[in-house]
Amino acid sequence: MSSPDLAAFGNVAVANLRKVVTEMVRYLPNTISLLVTFYAIFLFMLLGVRVLGDPAAADANIRYVIVANAFWFLLILGVSSMGWEITTEATRGTLEQLYMTTMPAWFVLLSRMVATLAVNVALLVAMVALSMVTARQWLNLDLVAVAAILPATLLAVVGLGFMVAGLAIVFKQIQAMLQIVQFVFMAMAFVPISAAPVLELAPAVKGIDMARQVLAEGRALASFAATDWFSLLASGVTYLALGLLVFRLCERRAMTRGLLGQY
Amino acid sequence: MSTSAPPLLELTGVHKAFPRRRGEGPVQAVDDISFRVEPGEIVGLLGPNGAGKTTTIKMTCGLIRPDSGVVRVCGHDVARHRHRALGHLSAVLEGNRNLYWRLTARENLEYFAGNRGRSRRSVRAEVDTLLERFRLADKADELVSNLSRGMQQKLAIAVAMMAGTRAVLLDEPTLGLDVETGHEVRALIQEVAAEGRTVVLSSHDMPVVQHLCRRAIVIDRGKVVTDDQVANLLRLFASRAYLVRLAEPLPADRRARLEREFAIADGDDVLSFAVELERGEDLYRLTRALEETGAVVEAIERTTVDFEHVFRQLVRREEPPSGERTLRWGAAHVVA
Fold it and tell me: How far is the C-alpha of A241 from the C-alpha of A159, rounded, in Å?
């Protein structure tokens, strides 16, 4: 039996994208509650900025909140969703079937994660638009800059997703941890690197910071230094590699201890 | 020079122990299991709960790593080349739980085919054929959550068929099904085997095993207790099982005397009892003993045995139903 070709990998990706979209439509109340939560949190933040914030910096702060809120949700959805997915698959009894393919399980999960991220990014774009209309504040929609920054940022998100997926395969009950992690993600999305330089080492934070400067502050893509790009790329690649490593180690442990089918 | 094809499945000296809580020793789930399954065989993998059947099946699929020993599928070492091995092997491990309940029957088939690298277009005709064949065509666009348990089970087997592999492992394929659906699933498995696919099924449903399998591998406490053709086992046990009919009930003290010498169980009524003999010549010993106890014998008949009986004789862990005496004939006598 020969190794799977590129088309086979493509078919796995398409099958998982179709599944994610289909289930998202079928679980419509879940999707709607997610969007309502996003919008409600944004409204609270908007109210906070308008009532408590410095009126002179209100516009800039609102744009900051719009971008940070979107990235916070992206982190939650991108990372936590893998934990939920694995836990749900183990509960349903389908996790082992995902391993019963001729394709690498990590690729099946990667496809699932990328599909989930893609769908969530599309939803978040719509929510960001709604936020802008609500606040009557317009972001600097430099699509080229976003297209340059976002992929490397998402690499780190995927890496984190793999770490969470690996832990979920071994420990299953990681819901409590995922809830706590949401607050860590909040800090990662809202605290600028200029206020806490050490955050540059955290996954995805460099990308979020750069995207925020472009979208909220109108910074030009060309104005970023080579070191910024290096930091962004190094962070993305490092966390992706780390995520895959953690996932493979957890997978190995699960297979040694017979944990794949257990819940 | 001719080279013979490798067996479809081959387990050699496989061990697996699972750790328990701290301070307690590991649980030896599988203890030196070896067997081969040749192409086209239908093999029943049997054993009481906790015997090591599921661990054996999951090690064959590469879902659990053995501590030692080798599992090969079509000559591919599962530990080293799991994906190549899975090109020849599919499995239904948890029946209807192997499906996505929020997808339709058709979407499940397409999704699992997609995860094996096949495009939706290339499997369309195959999906239709399978749905038709498994009598699910009219439910193709129904959510799995709306299907009956029997239909879900059939769909889970169809998903395994979709992989187009030479061997299929089925873990408890008739568990929880009503009689009619059980028979339908049984017929489908027979059809699958008739295509030349190798089927290994683990089951507690002995009529299913007797009906479908030519060969049975019985596992108990992680070890192979017996590995033989079902027909041979039935013959072996039938030749040793007799029903003694008496003209009048045997007093308890005399029966106790017989029980000290023979493996005896209750018969149909107080005027009969069943006896297992290890060798044909033991029949002479039995008649002598009956004569000595003063039993008035009306007839000694060879009994017909079903696979349920054979299985219970091979695996003696569970208590027999109340009122039934335990036969003393042990599994060790039939291990090759």
Answer: 7
Pick among B115, B124, B166 to test the A interface (most A CBs inside 10 A): B115
Reported ipTM: 0.87
Could you tell me which residues come within 8 angstroms of residue B9 by beta carbon, excluding any fewer than 6 positions away? B35, B36, B37, B60, B71, B72, B73, B89, B167, B198, B200
The one-letter amino acid code at A83 reads: G
Name the burial class of residue A3, with classes exposed (0-12), middle (13-18) and buried (19+) by CB atoms within 10 angstroms of its CB. exposed
CATH no., domain B235-334: 3.30.70.100
HSE, side-chain direction, 13 A CA sphere, residue B274: 22
Q: What is the pLDDT of residues B4-60, one digit of tens each?
A: 778 899 999 999 999 877 777 888 999 999 999 999 899 999 888 888 998 999 999
Residue B197 to residue B90: CA distance in whole angstroms: 11
Interatomic CA distance for residues A176 and A161, integer angstroms: 16
Residue A178 is given by DSSP the state H
Question: How many whole angstroms separate alpha carbon B169 and alpha carbon B55?
Answer: 12
Q: What angle do CA A8, A13, A18 make, to 5 degrees?
A: 125
Q: Which residue among B65, B103, B115 sits closest to A22, beta carbon to beta carbon?
A: B103
Q: Is the pLDDT of residue B138 over 90?
A: yes
Superfamily of chain region B9-229: P-loop containing nucleotide triphosphate hydrolases (3.40.50.300)
> Angle, to 10 degrees, between the axis of helix A205-215 and the axis of helix A175-190?
40
CB A255 to CB B101 under 8 A?
no
Q: What are B82's two structure tokens?
A: 């799991």
Q: How many folded domains does chain A comprise?
A: 1
